[in-house]
Structures are given as C-alpha cells and as structure tokens.
Design goal:
The complex is a heterodimer. By secondary structure, chain A is an alpha+beta fold. Chain A is 19% helix and 41% strand. Chain B is an alpha+beta fold. Classes of the chains: A alpha+beta, B alpha+beta.
Chain lengths: 125, 364
C-alpha cells in the first residue's frame, strides 16, 4: 500500500492534491483495497458547488456502493471521464489515472486533513 | 442477540489464501480472496476451474419404506420421475404455498434420498421435515455438521477433479450423481452447480476436506468467494432464497411452476398454489437490463410508465451484459410498460430481457 508524501488525506480515506487554487480529489490506496474491484464510478457534474465533507461522487465495487466525500469546498471544474469506461483505474492507480474530480477552491472550508505521516499513523490505529 | 459464528473445516485454508472473511448464514466465509471477485469470476467463466467452499449448506438424508411418499408430500417436484443417481431441483412449501426453502433432491435408491438445503434455512427445514415425518415410515438425519460441500465449476472442473476419483466423471451427466471414492474416501459427486458453467458439487466427510481442497488447488483450481459466486448465479437468473424466493411468494410469482407439479398428487402448499395460479400472481419476477449508466442493486425501485411497480431482488454489473437485475413488478408490467430503475433518485431507463443474462455452458 502506498501513501504519497505530496498529498493530504482525510479520515474517510480520500486524498487531495492542492496546486494553487485547484484541488484534485481521489480515494486512497487503502480505500480502493478495502472496497475491492471498482466496477462503476458516478462522477459529479461540472459546475457543481460542493461543500467540504459533502458526498460528491459514488464508487461501486462488486458488492458495495460507497459515497466519496469532498475534502475541500469548491466548484467542480473537471472530472475524470475515463473512469466511466475504466473504473478499475481507481484500483490500479488510485493516486494517478484514478483521480476522480478537480475543483476550484472557493473558500477555506475543509474537513480535517492529514499529512502522509499522520495518515499512516491513522491507518495503524 | 449475539451468535457464535461457525467455521468450516477449510477456514484456515481460506485465511491462508488471503480470503476476506465475512459473516454469512451463521458461518465465517470468504467473500473474496487476494485476486479479487472479478478475477475469480473470470476464471470460472473463461475456461478455468473455480473451487467454492459451500459447506455452510445443509444435507439431510431421508430413508425408509415411505421415503418416496414422504418426499412427494413435502416437496413440490415429482420425485417419482427420478431414477437412481439423478438430482432434481425442488422446493419445500408451507400450507400458504410460499417457500420454506428451495432444495435439491438426490435419489440414491427407492428407499433412500439425500437433500441439499440452504444454510440459513437449515434448522427451519429440518424441524419441518421431522414434524411431517411423524406420519410416514421414514428416518430423517441431518448430516450437515459432518459433511463438507465443495463446488468445482468451470470448463476445467472435470480435468481438475478426475485424478482424485476412482471412476470416469465423463459418465456423470447433467443433474446426475455418483457415490464414489474421493481421495480414498466415500463421497457423492454430482454434475450440478450454481454458475451456469460445467462442473460438480462434491459431498465429502469433513475429515478429508483439507486434503481434497489442496489436491484440487494443485490441479489448477482457484478458490472463489461469495461475491463471485453471487455474480455467477445472478447472471444465470438462478433464484436465491431471501431474494427472489421467500415465505412471501409462491412458485407462481417466482416463475418456479416448472418445479411445482400440480398433477402429481397432494403435497404441502398445493391447494394454495392452485388458488394463486387461478387468481393470478400478485407480482411477477422479470429479468431487466439497464439501458443507461449505473448498477441496479437489491431493493432499488422499479418503475413502469413512470409509476412505481416493484423492486429489484438481485442486481449487478455483469462484465459481459452490463447492468442486469431480477425484479418483482406488478403483474400488468411483466410484459408491458416502459421500465426504469431508480438509482440515487434518478430514473435510469431499462428494458425486459430473457434469462440467462449471459450464455449458459452447462452440459445438457
């Protein structure tokens, strides 16, 4: 299981990459492994305003339907449409081609974010 | 109420293989192994051999001079049609004509039969059979605790199993069985299953469970968990107790009149089934294919011409057929009306289709 150092993590096992006022969201390697084979991803609509902690996407594994929560508040400006045809990218490359959405950060609202070290400790607890 | 979960004799093997263990029908069972459900599913569908520990299922031996008369009275199918070594899909109904369980009946001889029953219904079934047996010269023995049941499914199943047994598996036809030596111990092998692929179900004493499991793995079989098992059975449209069938539906609703023989003489539930058949079903089970994006799941609502008509009983994303579901709808919508399934508040277009959802490869 990998936990890249350049990302922030949430207690719900999402990751966020912040670059200026743009944030990229996805689910952590731990999350994809716990869910098992992802067979469907429901992406948010472009332009949607999401609150920090709001469910903005849905991932479905063979057996389970799981909400994905936004680490930060913002406006959805891009979604990973490749996941519509290849949802398994969330399993095979959770931090890369398995990203889910990008938002333009519109406020400083955020859920509690952890560094890679903090998330590692959180997973061990 | 807390309940102690049981373990099958293969529990350690499941853990060793990376099995993700979940509670299921009172047992700790593997929902999937290290490779994941999709790869397990693919191995069974695409030429491999998958091995399933289904020891949680129950086995009941029925013997005695009135075994046939007893089974004719307690099961729905016509047991008199069975020849020795034949298996029959059947059901136990209550007086209301609704399901106590669905079962398979194995005919060993005119005075000895073997029933395979669902794990979750085992105690209820055995109590029911014992109560009914009071009026017949039969002996009912619940052998579930002593019996390991493995399913070996997929095109390579026969090749993986043949080296373990003392006679030609080729001679066992579909829904036939043989009592033979498995790894040197007496067992029952039937050409049956729950996947739509060729394969076998293997009844052996617990004492040789680990030995047989490991030999089958050595012969190329890979272990399959509950998740892939459910995918495989749903693609075939096979009913599962607690989903398509329950004590709330009769065979008329569940499309199981083909195992309910009203012309064979009296049996428990017959009068109620006849009444329901004459009055017409209250709802009907249909097969649905999703046209839009999404995965139909159990309990999702089904709409016909925009009005709520019923709900999904089993649904999945089929790697071959897309979003597919079994659902109960109002009788008038079994054949007519534009269908949709409500997924997270949105109506997703759907259409009726025929079963199985993907091609069956069982040996007819």
């Amino acid at each position: 299981m990998t936990i890249p150092a350049n990302l922030k993590y949430t207690k719900d096992h999402e990751w966020v990459r912040i670059e200026g006022d743009i944030a990229t969201f996805g689910i952590s390697d731990h999350a994809q492994e716990a869910l098992g084979d992802i067979v469907f991803v429901e992406l948010p609509e472009i332009g949607r305003e999401v609150n920090a902690g709001e469910a903005y996407a849905v991932v479905e594994s063979v057996k389970a339907v799981s909400d994905v929560y936004a680490p930060l508040a913002g406006e959805v400006i891009e979604v990973n449409e490749e996941l519509e045809g290849e949802p398994e990218k969330v399993n095979t490359d959770a931090y890369g081609t398995g990203w889910i959405a990008k938002i333009k950060i519109t406020s400083d609202a955020s859920v509690e974010l952890m560094s890679d070290d903090e998330y590692t400790t959180f997973l061990e607890e | 109420m807390s309940e102690q979960l049981a373990k099958t004799p293969l529990f350690e093997q499941h853990v060793e293989q990376g099995g993700k263990i979940v509670p299921f029908a009172g047992f700790e069972m593997p929902v999937q192994y290290t490779q994941g459900a999709l790869k397990e599913y693919t191995a069974v569908r695409e030429g491999g051999a998958g091995i399933f520990d289904i020891t949680h299922m129950g086995q009941v031996r029925v013997s005695g001079h009135e075994a046939l008369a007893f089974l004719q009275f307690v099961t729905t199918n016509d047991v008199s049609k069975l020849v020795n070594g034949q298996v029959q899909y059947s059901a136990l109904l209550n007086d209301a004509g609704t399901f106590i369980d669905d079962i398979t009946t194995y005919k060993i001889s005119d005075t000895e039969y073997y029933l395979c029953i669902n794990a979750a219904n085992r105690l209820k079934d055995v109590q029911h059979l014992q109560a009914q047996a009071a009026s017949f010269d039969v002996n009912i023995v619940d052998e579930s605790d002593d019996t390991t049941l493995l399913a070996l499914q997929g095109a390579a199943a026969q090749a993986a199993l043949q080296p373990l047994v003392d006679s030609e598996l080729e001679n066992i036809g579909y829904y036939k069985f043989a009592q033979l030596q498995v790894a040197g111990t007496s067992g029952i092998i039937s050409r049956t299953g729950y996947t739509g692929e060729d394969g076998f179900e293997i009844y052996i004493p617990n004492s040789i469970a680990v030995d047989v499991w490991e030999k089958l793995l050595a012969n190329g079989a890979i272990p399959i968990g509950l998740a892939a098992r459910d995918m495989l059975r749903t693609e075939m449209g096979y009913a599962l107790y607690g989903h398509e069938i329950s004590d709330a539906v009769t065979p008329v609703e569940a499309k199981l009149m083909w195992i309910t023989k009203l012309d064979k003489g009296d049996f428990i539930g017959k009068a109620a089934v006849e009444t329901r058949k004459n009055e017409g079903p209250r709802k009907r089970l249909i097969a649905i294919k999703l046209l839009g994006r999404g995965i139909p799941r159990e309990h999702y609502k089904v709409f016909a011409d925009g009005a709520e008509s019923g709900e999904v009983t089993s649904g999945m994303h089929s790697p071959m057929a897309g979003g597919v579901a079994l659902a109960y709808v109002k009788p008038e919508h079994a054949e007519n009306g534009e269908l949709s399934i409500e997924i997270r508040g949105k109506a997703v277009a759907a259409e009726r289709t025929t079963l199985p959802f993907v091609r069956s490869n069982v040996r007819r």
